[in-house]
Design a protein that fits this description.
The protein has helices spanning 407-418, 434-447; strands at residues 9-15, 26-31, 40-43, 50-58, 69-74, 88-94, 99-104, 123-129, 135-140, 155-160, 209-213, 220-228, 241-248, 262-265, 284-291, 297-303, 316-325, 333-338, 344-345, 355-359, 365-372, 375-376, 379-380, 384-390. The chain is mainly beta. The protein folds into two domains: 9-396, Neuraminidase; 397-450. Strands 15, 16, 17, 18 and 19 form a five-stranded antiparallel sheet that branches. β6 (88-94) and β7 form a beta hairpin. The longest helix has 14 residues, at 434-447. Bound molecules: calcium ion (CA) (4 copies). The site of one calcium ion (CA) has 9 residues, from β13.
């Protein structure tokens, strides 16, 4: 789910598996902006808690006269050209009324090899909607053959400019970020017990993630996933997994791989010392991405760099946040922060995905949702979904949230100070004082810097 707007936060995921049963539904709950409790809960299906595949979104804007929501998921009951593969489906609807319309993500044109009109199948499908109304979906090319169907078992991208009625590009050529770059997919679950990292994290599915930079017109769309840092090794070897990021500058219609639009995030870029680099790792996996109000790319991900085993093979992970400014420009800066105070042992399945949501219509604050564990006595908690507010005080001078720091914002700040309005507390320390003025001036100048 990917919407924006009022500051209302949505949190959800798969409900727990029943004894001998199967995953029966998607649960979610929400809270209003400023509330400290999750005061209401709804279930799209089922009534149990959430223990897998957390998702989160912020919005919608209640002033909008109509809002379309999109959720993508795999529906294995659909007829497929490849019957062993889960199929992606799309749902649109009104989350408040709990009414949804189901649409298949499928091309209009037959497969040139088989003549069949195959659904766009795969795992981990995620949608975004650009400001022009285009729905862009990334899906892992999870076909059984080693070569995959579209992108050698890495994610691919399709889009709809008709609210899900038609999907493009055509069947033979979805957008395939990373194609031809020598980026090689990690093993997947069915490849066996040996691979690039613990099979108990994510079951190895490249975990695609997608985000929109709405400050650009047309919007820029980013897709990220993890893959092997080197190609050409047997799938049974434990290798080093890295993050890869690709960018579309035409609203998600096409993705370029090289030059300023594709980035291989090496361990060194993420602050791992040279002595920590071995052919087995450290591994960065299961990324979640969003773009903040400055246009910076933000990712959270699992990272086993603190695993006490010399081979990174004892399944200890942390969750990290990385922020990239001036993506692929000479001035690019990468800042990496550890979010989990204790490295925790996976020991059990940690869920396939996590999310990173920008708060409010302006992307000024970030919230992370992820599955982790924490120390309890001499042992460890079971897996829990954690929500974390990442406050980085972005675009503080843009009080009216229009993307610019202007004279009107200065007037609004001055008025907020004079009336002791909470909106004047730019550094969120509960006080309105000169620190907030300094914050305003710093933010105003940085937002207007060349
Ligand atoms: Ca590894
Ligand atoms: Ca790595
Ligand atoms: Ca403004
Ligand atoms: Ca303050």
């Amino acid at each position: 789910m990917s919407v924006r707007g009022s500051g209302r936060i949505w949190l959800g995921g798969l409900r727990g598996q029943t004894q001998g049963g199967s995953f029966a539904g998607i649960n979610y709950a929400n809270k209003e902006a400023g509330d400290t409790d999750w005061t209401s809960g709804f279930a799209i299906a089922g009534t149990q808690g959430v223990s897998d595949k957390p998702f989160m979104a912020v919005g919608p804007d209640p002033t909008l006269s109509s809002t379309m929501y999109y959720v993508t998921y795999n529906d294995q009951t659909m007829t497929a050209c490849d019957s062993t593969n889960a199929q992606s489906a799309q749902v649109t609807g009104d989350a408040f009324l709990n009414t949804w319309t189901k649409l298949r993500i499928k091309p209009d044109t037959p497969d040139p090899e088989t003549g069949d009109v195959c659904d766009y199948g795969g795992w981990g499908s995620l949608p975004v909607v650009t400001d022009s109304g285009v729905v862009v979906v990334t899906v892992l090319d999870r076909y059984p053959a080693v070569a995959g169907k579209y992108n050698a078992r890495k994610p691919y991208v399709v889009f709809s400019d008709s609210a899900g009625a038609h999907w493009w590009p055509n069947n033979s050529a979805p957008n395939i970020p990373g194609f031809g770059m020598g980026v090689e997919a990690c093993p997947i679950w069915s490849d066996g017990p040996i691979g690039d990292f613990s099979p108990k994290v994510d079951r190895r599915k490249c975990a695609p993630t997608i985000a929109v930079d709405r400050s650009k017109s047309p919007n820029w769309v980013y897709v990220a996933y993890y893959a092997r840092s080197e190609a050409g090794h047997p799938l049974t070897e434990d290798r080093n997994a890295d993050l890869y990021i690709f960018r579309s500058v035409d609203g998600g219609l096409t993705f370029a791989n090289e030059g300023v639009h594709g980035l291989h995030m090496t361990d060194a870029m993420l602050g791992v010392a040279p002595g920590g680099l071995i052919e087995q790792g450290p591994d960065q996996i299961v990324p979640a991405m969003t773009i903040d109000c400055t246009g910076a790319v933000n990712l959270i991900y699992y990272d086993n760099r603190n695993d006490p085993s010399p081979g990174y093979d004892s399944e200890y992970f942390d969750v990290y946040h990385t922020r990239i400014t001036d993506f692929k420009q000479p001035t690019m800066q990468i800042t990496t922060t550890r979010l989990t105070p204790s490295s925790f042992p996976a020991e059990m399945f940690l869920g396939d995905y996590q999310t990173l949501a920008p708060a409010g219509p302006t992307g000024k604050k970030l919230y992370a949702a992820y599955i982790a564990r924490e120390p309890v006595g001499s042992g460890w908690s079971s897996k829990n979904c954690y929500v974390r507010k990442i406050t980085i005080n972005l675009c503080a001078a843009d009080l009216n949230g229009n993307g610019f720091a202007e004279g009107g914002d200065a007037e609004s700040f001055s008025e907020a100070v004079s009336t002791s309005s909470p909106t004047a507390d730019l550094n969120e320390d509960g006080q309105i004082d000169t620190d907030d003025l300094e914050t305003f001036v710093w933010s105003y100048e940085s937002m207007n810097a060349e």
